[in-house]
Amino acid sequence: MGAGEGTGVDGGGTYLVTGGAGYIGGVVAQHLLEAGHRVVVLDDLSTGVREGAPEGAEFVEAGLHEAGRVLDPSFDAVLHFAASSQVGESVVKPEKYWRNNVGGSMAVSYTHLDVYKRQALLSAMREAGVRRLVFSSTAATYGEPATVPIPETAPTAPTNPYGASKLAVDHMITGEANAHGLAAVSLRYFNVAGAYGDHGERHDPESHLIPLILQVALGRRGHISVYGDDYPTPDGTCVRDYIHVADLAEAHLLALKAAAPGEHLICNLGNGNGFSVRQVIDTVRRVTGHPIPEEVAARRGGDPAVLVASAATARDRLGWRPRRADLTTIVSDAWAFARAHA
Fold first, then answer.
1. Catalytic residue at 189?
2. How far, in Å, CA of 142 to CA of 221, rounded?
């Protein structure tokens, strides 16, 4: 626990949230504030927006390599969300993903030409004596799964540089825990959706299915594209596991409590149930009252038919249970946010 004296998740702790002006980081930062903690958000605003960081959090506009300027022994833990996260972009710009996701997280330090000593995150944490970390990992580390639901013991074989970069950070965290006693939890998300109060998806460009369909309902696009309708699923479209962003945030607070010195715990986060693309479209139609025109397009390369999580480890080790698992709730909350920020 940082300097070993924080009060932890029950309130009164001090936490650094990297990428806390983004979608998921902002919701987690808000949950930490509501639990009575001091929150410092570190974000370079390359993909996040200033208003994404919750009111009440201290904001530092800087990149991961400048975490050493912020961290000191008063911090109880770091929650690490800062990353480039567009799968398609990672294929055409892999160097960006190695530089940002891996280079910004790695356990090295170096001197830059400016007046500050610049360190990647794990090195800055070690020097400051901050010994707890919750890492935002991804189901993309698994690639195309051999079995569904996917357990944490499934082989990791990412099919794109984004997933590979996140897996590389997971390996670094394992080494840091084994060698230097870091207490770490990696949470591998599936499809995060929904909204929490004034915090929702603001990606530019947008690539996630639910906000894309909502753009049709708002008149921002004429139709939604369905990439393949001939998969071996009940309606021929891909099936994915959707998790409400507020359920996800609650898992992060539980992970802080569960982190143990010298251990790197990896947990999948998902509902354990899958919804097809057409089921999502139909749910948006019901929630918004909009017809949502759709057009079938060719399959995208590397899209598995079914991706569903086994969240048994999160249940057993974190005591986590998703409380907003129904698709109507997820879509309704996302729709309320989309209309409020139209």
1. no
2. 32
